[in-house]
Design goal:
Layout lengths: L5 H15 L3 H9 L13 E5 L10 E5 L4 E3 L11 H4 L1 E9 L16 H4 L15 H14 L12 E4 L9 H12 L1 E3 L31 H4 L8 H7 L2 E3 L6 E3 L16 H7 L3 E3 L2 H12 L5 H13 L5 E3 L11 H9 L14 H6 L4 E5 L3 E5 L13 E2 H17 L2 E5 L21 E2 L1 H9 L4 E6 L6 E6 L5 E6 L9 E9 L4 E10 L13 H12 L19 E6 L9 H27 L1
Parallel strand pairs: 3-21, 4-5, 5-8, 12-14, 14-16, 16-18
Antiparallel strand pairs: 1-2, 4-19, 6-7, 9-10, 11-12, 13-15, 17-18, 19-20, 20-21
Helix pairs in contact: 1-2, 1-17, 2-17, 5-6, 5-16, 10-11
């Protein structure tokens, strides 16, 4: 540890060893070893691609060649110094997860029959892989754990940021599954009757859905989707074990964590249906039993009639299912409260949210990662209607004030939100009562550009790997980094590392990460990793949209994003970085020891 004196080194080792309950000698050896790029499987070493070129015909996946980093100079505006490679030092190494979409596929509030009305308009309301989200998320957590040392510098991961759409249909059960997957633990991805799948993929009248027991009765069969008997019951019968993230993680709201299907307001009738015993299998049942009952023009008598027929099941296409109180839809503050109930390890308590957030209802926050990086977690979700977002005036002004403080404190500022610059355009306001001004993409980006401390804006929402430069007219700017999702192909997430090139420039390395499961699914493999692999294969065969498009271009995946340093980075001493490294390495050693002991028990 060249930045620390021997005395300071011993003090850092001793303090971190005590704090994380790891042997002092083990930690000392780890810190004394020179940092080197970690040998970890990422898309730098291999990719997963469609095995055949036939569009709209069922295809398997296969291993492809890795992708090197693509230098991007859009913001820097000049050729970088080639010698930076030998000088660079890591300032922060983060993981980025977004659009997890943990799904209870049997919930009565799911509105899958919309897919039968318009598959293109309602793409994503029903997917063949919906029941396997716990398997995919756990496999992605496993991949993040394996990548806990940087493939570029060998630096230890400091934190993971989660940019929304974690609970797909707003249920407490989905919320608990997602938090358990990230913290580590066991999930049984089932609701209702034990060991039995009760949902549209098992019901022959739901002709818009893939039926793994008999795909000949739906459009998926015509596209070559396989017959996989016993799949659905296997999915809901076996517990999923998640290793948990090895580092603290921070979360923000997504539109699916705010509105039903990320689009519709939630009323008392919807909340009652969530814990009830009726689920629509067909469009007719959904329209008359739910959408008709919610129609703004419906009379009181009409609404009452619709409620009664839904309740007593006399509508064609309405199925009886096993009710489950765990399917309760959460209130907005309950989302934050659930994060505060999460265990202190890996932490932090609340994952960005604080007791004050729950008390006041304020849904945004700020937190430091190490001594040099400040995170700003925003809530860009519209509370009224619509999937896209905006920044309310109160939050906009708060962020301006906080960025001014970060600039004074010389903190590298990373802004987190669910929505990105192409989807920050929602103008829905309350029909009754006061409404504050909503800021949209152009104004928001302009404000961020006024602070040189902002180096990155990290987000999701579109399920597409995208990297966008934002430049000042006077030179410089920041990078917007949008990751794909865990639900749609390619089911990739990201590693993000901020690196000081010691020449007045900063590099932000982005590395796309596949989840830890085989590229090619083996027929009949219903293991936890096997079902994650199958989910990715099913997602790659989306016949409504073009799934390969969601990969983005090579300039949206593994990249080195260069910018001018926002301040003199030499003011960040090597000693300070090494002291922070001692804490991060001790945390990772404690994580590894804990899992080794659990495995031998």
């Amino acid at each position: 540890m060249p930045g620390l004196s021997r005395r300071a080194f011993l003090a850092a080792v001793g303090a971190s060893a005590v704090a994380w309950a790891v042997p002092t000698r083990m930690l000392g050896r780890a810190l004394a070893s020179p940092a080197a790029p970690a040998d970890v499987v990422t898309t730098l070493t291999q990719t997963i691609r469609l095995a055949a070129p036939h569009y709209r015909k069922y295809r398997t996946l296969a291993i492809g060649p890795g992708e090197p980093y693509e230098p991007r100079l859009d913001v820097l505006g000049r050729a970088p110094d080639a010698a930076r490679v030998a000088r660079r030092r890591s300032l922060a190494y983060l993981g980025h997860m977004t659009d997890i979409h943990m799904i209870d596929a049997q919930s009565p509030t799911r509105i899958e029959p919309l897919a039968g009305q318009s598959p293109t308009m309602w793409a994503g309301v029903e997917r063949p892989q919906d029941s396997m989200t716990a398997h995919v998320t756990s496999a992605m957590v496993d991949a993040m754990s394996q990548a806990r040392l940087s493939p570029i510098t060998g630096a230890p991961m400091s934190a993971v940021v989660v940019t929304g759409d974690s609970a797909d249909m707003h249920s407490e059960l989905e919320l608990s599954w997602y938090i358990t997957a990230l913290d580590g633990g066991e999930i049984l991805p089932n609701s209702g009757a034990p060991g039995v799948y009760e949902g549209v993929q098992a019901w022959p009248e739901a002709t818009y859905a893939w039926h793994p027991d008999d795909p000949g009765i739906d459009p998926y069969g015509a596209y070559g989707f396989p017959r996989i008997p016993g799949l659905l019951d296997a999915v809901v019968s076996s517990p999923v074990q998640s290793v948990g993230l090895p580092v603290p993680w921070f979360a923000v709201y997504g539109n699916h964590d705010t509105l039903l299907l990320g689009t519709f307001g939630i009323d008392s009738q919807t909340r009652a249906r969530a814990v009830g015993d009726r689920k629509a299998a067909t469009w007719e049942a959904l329209a008359s039993g739910w959408l008709g009952g919610l129609a703004a023009t419906g009379s009181l008598a009409q609404r009452a009639g619709n409620t009664l027929t839904s309740t007593f099941g006399s509508q064609p296409g309405m199925r009886s299912v096993t009710p489950d109180p765990a399917r309760k839809l959460f209130e907005q503050r309950e989302f934050m409260a659930a994060h505060l109930r999460s265990p202190a390890v890996p932490g932090p308590v609340g994952h960005g949210f604080t007791p004050a957030n729950v008390e006041t209802g304020q849904t945004w926050w700020t937190a430091d990662v190490g001594a040099n990086v400040r995170l700003f977690g925003l809530d860009t979700c519209n509370q009224i209607a619509g999937p896209d977002g905006a920044v309310p005036a109160e939050q906009f002004e708060w962020l301006k004030q906080q960025l001014a403080v970060a600039e004074r404190d010389r903190k590298l500022s990373v802004v987190l939100s669910h929505h990105n610059s192409t989807t920050l355009e929602n103008g829905a306001v309350p029909a009754i009562g006061p409404a504050q001004r909503l800021y949209h993409a152009e104004e928001f980006v302009s404000m961020l550009l006024s602070f040189r401390t902002v180096v990155a804006w990290i987000n999701g929402h579109t399920h597409i790997n995208t990297i966008t430069p934002h430049q000042r007219a006077s030179g410089g700017g920041f990078w917007e980094v949008t990751a794909a999702s865990c639900i749609d192909f390619p089911q990739q997430q990201q590693l993000v590392e901020l690196v000081d090139n010691r020449d007045g420039t900063l590099s932000i390395f982005t590395t796309t990460l596949d989840h830890a499961s085989a590229a090619t699914w083996t027929d009949g493999d219903f293991s936890q990793a096997g079902l994650a692999s199958l989910s990715r294969q099913l997602a790659a065969n989306d016949w409504v949209e073009n799934p390969a498009m969601r990969l983005g271009s090579p300039l949206d995946r593994n990249c080195e994003l260069l910018i001018e340093a926002p301040f003199d980075l030499s003011t960040i001493s090597d000693a300070d970085l090494e002291a922070a490294r001692a804490t991060d390495v001790a945390r990772l050693l404690a994580y590894g020891r804990g899992h080794a002991e659990a495995g031998s028990a």
